[in-house]
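Team,

Forwarding the record for the chain on the shared tracking sheet. I've put the sequence and predicted structure together so nobody has to dig through attachments.
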Amino acid sequence: MADQRVAARYAKSLLDLAQEQGTLPAIKQDMDLLASVMAGSRDLRLLLRNPIVKHDKKLAILTAIFGGKVSDTLMRFFQILTSKNREAALEHIGDEFLAQYNAQQGVQVAEVTSATALSAEARAEVERLVRQQTGLTQVSLTEKVDPSLIGGFVLRVGDQQIDDSVRGGLRRLRTSLADKTFIPG
């Protein structure tokens, strides 16, 4: 929880700095890369949390991974984090930055899981539903396929979930039947 708060503060600072310098698109791209690398590398996350590994070694590893791939601003940001002993928060900073960026830009992030890949019409309908629910005009929709849903979809928007899948309907039916007491004839 403390790392989340620290990550939110550092992400906000980086967002403000990028706006001030007019480098927001480049920093956003860098943070997409950071979030992707952090999500995909358990070893890196564990290393950054490890108190035994010295800060200069962590900075050297970050430099080896991201050097030449990200802006100088982000490399200096890594130096600040390591000098302040905040490397562990880096795991969450990428996601926090992207969440704050999307909120600032008026972009609603949503995730739809369906039994089969969505058609263009179905995707447009889901985006329309998200815009209607949130009032935001821009929607960033992530699609996943899960054949176990049998049919329909599960839509996640922020902390809300709409389960309109066949599997969800069957689960609700089973629950409602289990809740009713059956008294034979």
